[in-house]
């Protein structure tokens, strides 16, 4: 969290302007405490005192940042999307569930649009933040369903590899999906997995192991 810092000026408004210039935000986005109101002093300004304030950027919750960003995205896409957010303080994780009439558009092919939304929201939420907040976005329980599909695929292909004793290459997947495949088969006898290729065509290969 950003710390308060002292700013001075002939008046409180001048001090606030100095804070606004240094922090790079409008004055209405600054929270401050007045330490000294300042005074003009007597004749010729003798005995005058500068105004002093403690100021910093207004602190906005990660939920507000994420909601503002996603609402703007959906507005430009012409979509009406309801957002349900839950922040887990212990895990420093923000879970976002989307609901609406056209969620298939936001999921995209093999979840690519959903992954992109999650990636961009992570960037926006963590911009200028000292503590990294992990953002997870889902809709219609897609990620859980996709995980089950990939685990079933991994087991079925592993059975084929064991029967044929020949390696099988799977379709290109993102890092998250590849981890699901590796994890599903890490304790399966006579098969091993590794990844090959460069992004975005990197894929998992399931190999046969004799012993």
Radius of gyration: 27 Å
Q: Tell me the strand percentage band.
A: 25-35%
* Overall shape: elongated
Number of separate helices:
6
The tally of beta strands, per DSSP, is 9
Weakly predicted, low-confidence segments: none
The strand line-up of the biggest sheet is 1-3-2
Order of helices and strands: EHEEHEEHHEHEHEE
Give the end-to-end Cα distance, rounded to a whole number of Å: 54 Å
Helix content: 25-40%
**Biggest beta sheet attributes:** 3 strands, antiparallel
The mean pLDDT is: 91
Structural class of the secondary structure composition?
A: alpha+beta
Structure, described:
Helices cover 39% and strands 26% of the residues. The chain has helices at 12-23, 62-77, 103-107, 112-126, 142-164, 175-185; strands at 5-9, 30-36, 51-57, 81-88, 93-100, 134-139, 168-169, 191-196, 203-208. The longest helix has 23 residues, at 142-164. Strand 8 (191-196) and strand 9 form a beta hairpin. The mean pLDDT is 91. The two termini are 54 Å apart. The chain has a 3-stranded antiparallel sheet. A 3-stranded mixed sheet has the order 4-5-6. A 3-stranded antiparallel sheet has the order 7-9-8. The protein is an alpha+beta fold.
């Amino acid at each position: 969290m950003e710390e308060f810092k002292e700013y001075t000026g002939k008046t409180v408004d001048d001090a606030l302007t100095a804070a606004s210039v240094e922090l790079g935000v409008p004055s209405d986005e600054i929270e401050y405490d007045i330490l000294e109101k300042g005074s003009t002093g007597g004749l010729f300004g003798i005995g005058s005192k500068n105004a002093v304030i403690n100021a910093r950027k207004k602190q906005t919750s990660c939920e507000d940042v994420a909601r503002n960003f996603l609402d703007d995205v959906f507005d430009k896409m012409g979509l009406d999307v309801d957002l349900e957010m839950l922040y887990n303080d212990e895990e420093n994780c923000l879970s976002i569930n989307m609901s609406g009439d056209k969620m298939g558009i936001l999921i995209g092919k093999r979840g690519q649009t959903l992954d992109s939304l999650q990636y961009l929201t992570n960037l926006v939420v963590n911009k200028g933040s000292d503590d990294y907040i992990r953002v997870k976005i889902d809709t219609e329980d897609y990620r859980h369903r996709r995980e089950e599909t990939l685990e079933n695929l991994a087991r079925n292909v592993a059975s084929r590899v064991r029967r044929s004793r020949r390696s099988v290459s799977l379709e290109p997947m993102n890092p998250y999906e590849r981890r699901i495949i590796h994890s599903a088969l890490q304790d399966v006898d006579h098969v091993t997995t590794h990844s090959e290729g460069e992004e975005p065509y990197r894929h998992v290969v399931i190999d046969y192991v004799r012993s």
